[in-house]
Amino acid sequence: MPGRAWYDVAPSAARLTGSLRDIGYEFPTAVADIVDNSVAAGATRIDVTVEFDGEDSRVVIADDGDGMSAGQLTEALRFGTRRSYRRGELGRYGLGLKTASLSQCRMLTVISRSSRSVARMSARQLDLDLVEEWDQWVVVDPSPQDPVVRSARQGLAEGTGTVVVWQALDRVLPEKRPSGGWARRRLETLAARTSDHLSMVFHRFLEGSDGLAPLVMSVNGQKLRPWNPFAPQEPHTSELPRQQFEIEMAGGVGLVHLRRFVLPPRDRFTSAAEFERHSGPLNWNRQQGLYVYRANRLVQWGGWGGIRGIDEHTKLARAALDFDNDLDTAFNINVAKMRVSLPAQLRQILEAPVNELCVLANDAYRRAPRGSVRPVPADVNASPEVRAATHAAATAGLALRMAAMQADQWVAWERIEETLRAQSPEVAQLLGLDR
To answer: Which SUPFAM superfamilies match (predicted)?
Structure first.
């Protein structure tokens, strides 16, 4: 800045790291953020171990991905990593490894190997006690005699990969009696919740997608089974036609894809156990709604994003909304990758397809299945005015059905539909009410 005085006002490392610990991670979401890095590194296997050992309890997340060189590892532990993210990558701000880890622990150790032919490994440690003592952004080489480091090196002896270790779990273990039975049970509970969370958030990777082999993931030695919210293996799950929308953004437009599903009611699931399993961690009512995916990774689920409210009669309705990381700004994704905001233009576009889905889910809930509600196509030779009028009539029929459902007058509405179909079939067809 020629001709102007300037001053270095670098933030206090001790104070800022304390603030960054409170971004808002829970234990399962913090683990998921580390798993993002493993997926981005091309891992085919990821093992999470939550090990209780009193004050020495630890969490280990190991993968067989590409690994990092010594320089890459040091850079990875920088707050605000100096790297860009390609389209389709799960990273965003260059903070996840640090903020997710330190939200749960005071000591983060990373051991990595990037060469398949040379068994050279690098290790770095970020210790909050040292950061606070020196008030500097520093990482150190951990002691090679540290049992954690030795164990990680043994695990990487056969090939590339990275091992992330959390120690000094001050945000996880109780300050008093960290070796007690309550502390042990807490870690067991957190491990179970983490299994459920990872099975849901990464279900597409666990199932295998885009021609890739399924990712193998385990928690405490138990292989995870993907939890797909749309129950595609159930023969009575129905899917509406897929839709695609364009969202304006700086420099052009981005694409958003919508898939809508109506799950079967209890008596049409293959078993009561599968019905209960698909109720999800929030249970049926709160699991209805939009499932928002960023680069195939689930980032938000449940609820209708302000389009409509949750209703017992529409609990079988679920929809997948997909966008890639080029639309991050439009969706206002947060650091922890747990929350997005639907762009205003998209929310308006989604009203009609969401209402259509909810009408069909209401039918399924009341065990009165019907064909999909859709505009009756006008004659291809019809004028634009006629086609527009046909679409408007079908939209009006959908609005009438939604109003009957929301007013809790569905039984009366069914009688009205039956009367229309009997006495005025042409009107019923125009309104999209024909079976």
So the answer is: ATPase domain of HSP90 chaperone/DNA topoisomerase II/histidine kinase
pLDDT band for position 2 (cuts 50, 70, 90): low
Name residue, tokens 């939009």.
290
In angstroms, the CA 133 to CA 106 distance is: 13
Predicted pLDDT at 280 = 92
Among residues 171, 163, 139, 143, the alpha carbon closest in space to that of 57 is found at 171
Which of 268, 262, 212, 269 lies closest to 239 in space, CA to CA? 262
Which two tokens mark 20? 């960054």
| Separation between Cα atoms, residue 356 and residue 343, nearest integer Å | 20
- In DSSP notation, 301-315 reads ESB-TTSS---GGGT
pTM comes to 0.83
What contacts 265, CB < 8 A, 6 or more positions away?
Answer: 316, 364, 365, 367
Upper half-sphere CA count for residue 168 (Cβ side, 13 Å): 13
3-state secondary structure of 164: strand
What's the pLDDT score for residue 406?
Answer: 64
User: CB under 8 Å, gap of 24 or more: what pairs does 122-126 form?
Assistant: 122/68, 122/69, 122/70, 122/73, 123/73, 123/149, 123/152, 124/73, 124/74, 124/77, 126/77, 126/98, 126/101, 126/102
| Residue 377 · residue 389 · CB < 8 Å | no
Q: Is the dihedral of CA 213, 219, 224, 229 positive or negative?
A: negative
Q: What is the pLDDT of residue 384?
A: 61
58-63 and 161-167 strand pairing: antiparallel
What is the C-alpha separation between 221 and 53, in angstroms, rounded?
17
Dist CA 105 CA 171 (whole Å): 6
The dihedral through the CA atoms of 372, 373, 378, 380 has a sign that is negative
Rounded to an integer, what distance in angstroms lies between the CA atom of residue 30 and that of residue 48? 12
- The alpha carbon dihedral of 376, 382, 385, 386 has a sign of negative
Is 41 in contact with 67 (CB distance < 8 Å)? Answer: yes
Is residue 52 a contact partner of residue 72, using CB atoms and an 8 Å limit? no
